[in-house]
Amino acid sequence: MKRAFTIVEVSILFVIFLIVAFLVAPMSLDDSMQAKNTSRWRNVQADFSNIIYTVNANSESEEYDFGENFKSVISSQIKEPVSAYKVSFMNGTYPNATYRFNDFYLTYSGAVLSYKLYGELQDGVAGMLMYDVNGSVGPNVWGKDVFGMNIYPDKFEPFCQNDPISIQRQECAKDGTGLCCSNYYLVGGSIK
């Protein structure tokens, strides 16, 4: 004698499948969005190699001023200023003065960037740049869609490039700031 499933049993199974789907779907969507943002960040690296080359194209000239050349080249990438833009660390806190930027700009590629140049070199560093790969669309979190680089007179270098991988991995965890993800993802670090 064959026994069929009752409507109650089928309903229970359906509810269980729905619960599992609701639990798994956001995680896989978040992971695919993070992978997409990380891929965008990798692509940005080549663009900035070209930008620093352009900034330094006339470095032999007597009138050469790194800061002015940098601003001129970056301004060619900017579409318009962005207002009401807020960024946070992965752990939910807000950046301290070192990693706080004031003026934000929408680029022609749809990203948001901000930079600050120091008056004088600080340990060889001319300034810092913040880059949000998906623009003002959320989450606007360091290590998720926001990444950063130190600006040197001859190169851009992702934050934490010289830190041990163990430190970079720790900073890319949920309770970290996300700053080191700028380099960690470039060297093959996994998304957490």
Mean pLDDT: 86
The largest pleated sheet is described as:
6 strands, antiparallel
Query: How many whole angstroms does the radius of gyration measure?
Result: 22 Å
Q: Report how far apart the termini are.
A: 51 Å
Cα shape: elongated
Q: Which percent range fits the helix content?
A: 25-40%
Portion of residues in beta strands equals 15-25%
What's the structural domain tally? 1
Order of helices and strands: HHEEEEEEHH
Structural class: alpha+beta
Low-confidence stretches: none
Order of strands in the sheet with most strands: 1-2-3-4-5-6
Would you report the number of β strands? 6
Q: Count the helices. How many?
A: 4
Question: What's the helix and strand layout?
Answer:
Blueprint: H1 7-55, H2 66-75, E1 78-82, E2 104-107, E3 112-122, E4 125-132, E5 146-151, E6 156-158, H3 165-171, H4 181-184
Antiparallel strand pairs: 1-2, 2-3, 3-4, 4-5, 5-6
Structure characterization notes:
With 192 residues, the protein is of the alpha+beta class. The protein has one domain (7-184). The chain has helices spanning 7-55, 66-75, 165-171, 181-184; strands at 78-82, 104-107, 112-122, 125-132, 146-151, 156-158. The chain has a six-stranded antiparallel sheet with strand order 1-2-3-4-5-6. Strand 2 (104-107) and strand 3 form a beta hairpin. The model has no long low-confidence stretch (mean pLDDT 86).
